[in-house]
Structure of SufD family Fe-S cluster assembly protein:
Amino acid sequence: MDKYQEHLLEVIADLHGIPEGAYNIRSNGQSVGRASTAHIEIEPQKDRPGINVYIKPETQHEAVHIPVVLSQAGLKDVVYNDFYVGEGADVVIVAGCGIHCGSDDGSQHDGIHTFHIGKNARVRYVEKHYGDGDGKGQKIMNPETIVHMEEGSYMEMETTQIKGVDSTKRVTKADLAASATFIVKEKLMTDGVQFAETEFEVELNGKDSSTDVVSRAVARGTSHQIFRAKVIGNAQCHGHSACDSIIMDDAKISAIPELTANDTDAALIHEAAIGKIAGEQLTKLMTLGLTAEEAEEMIIQGFLK
Amino acid sequence: MDKYQEHLLEVIADLHGIPEGAYNIRSNGQSVGRASTAHIEIEPQKDRPGINVYIKPETQHEAVHIPVVLSQAGLKDVVYNDFYVGEGADVVIVAGCGIHCGSDDGSQHDGIHTFHIGKNARVRYVEKHYGDGDGKGQKIMNPETIVHMEEGSYMEMETTQIKGVDSTKRVTKADLAASATFIVKEKLMTDGVQFAETEFEVELNGKDSSTDVVSRAVARGTSHQIFRAKVIGNAQCHGHSACDSIIMDDAKISAIPELTANDTDAALIHEAAIGKIAGEQLTKLMTLGLTAEEAEEMIIQGFLK
């Protein structure tokens, strides 16, 4: 791996070198390192690019790292990763994609991740998307996350795209059996002429299933963001979605949540707000000695924290 | 007018006989009474069914009644009513439609109302939709309301559909110049196999324009409701939309608000909630001596008040 890729790995997966536990590192469309453990087996998919990750029932507090880095110009990489999380397991899965672009040719990574989460299993899924480099080529990432949750299972998804991704369409779909819980925390920032579209669709099919989808977004420059979140209640369930956005410069933001109650015992709520940074917040920080730019930056960092 | 029509008039427009001020009463597709006043002139449209209503500038505290009643089976009535509200006028416009159905043949009324609201004018627009009768025919109403608001104008729209409308698609579109304000209060109840779709689209084009769109809805039986509200901020503006729904029996409700900020100084918010009547509310009223049905009815009345 070159120095650009090493830097990307650090940003997207907090990795300095080879991670502990199970991992698969994909670089420029190839697997460049893979390790299984006693409880977590990773093997390549047979008929398409990508891996299968098998996590044994009751596996406790282990981690899987599956970062993807691209520094080769003009590459379009599509990968399918399937996760089978056994009953009662409790694991952390760290994905993420970094693209370094040093030329006029763009690069694209489309990662389709499918999770089969067993009864009472718990998954924390962390995903970061990042781009850098001086090249003019477009850095494009289209992650798709499909989550099937069995009874009593729990998944928390933290997804962050702060910098350097020129275009993204992010699709997340989940279906929940009884007493399953799906939590999403999305952080998104776009700048320049970037475009980001996010789409969540959560089906609450089982009794006492619940979801909480929260997105915080900042749009700067002339960037454009579209946020969609569908929550569908087909049983006695609780659903909440929220989208808070800061709009700056000449950016544009649309927020389109959608609640559908197909059951009398479905309780569904959403809120959304789009606005600019309040003038009094800026003034207050500037009286403490910060410049206008520093004050703005501090507020954005706090908002996306 | 027959006794069914007289009852409809009373329900939709609080009218016992002929109203004071300007009016146009439409019955079974025909105008059956019309009066202008010194400040408000009503004339038939030249090339299509409907009327033009001209309200002189600075007209103060006058009312216009334009109810529509249908009791003839099998009638499909389409009407275009255009309102020209002069600068600085302050008026109340009471519309509404009632259908009585006594046979197996349905009736349909599609009213397309267009408002041109002059500078600093104020309009309170009240619209009720209601159906009754023992007939099995479908009572269908598709009201469309188009509102063009000049600088500093104000419109408050109260729209109520509580009973007896089998199918409705309600479309309301407004565009606002600087400092204009558009307020909507919608109350909706569906029962049986009724279907109701509501669509609001408000474009905040002028500096300091604002809107507040609030819908309260109850869905009973196996009825189905869809609520859409788009608020588009194209300038320094404030927009708020909210949809609160009570779901009962085997009803289905979807709420799909949409916020789009095309200007950094657009501040937009929406909320929506769908849920059933809280058990503790029912219990409390029942300990005061009400039956479960009476308690439910009282809560619904309070919610839609």
In short: Residues 292-304 of chain B form the longest helix (13 residues). The CA atoms of residues 57 and 86 of chain B lie 4 Å apart. Chain B touches chain A at residues 233, 245, 247-262, 264-276 (CB under 8 Å).
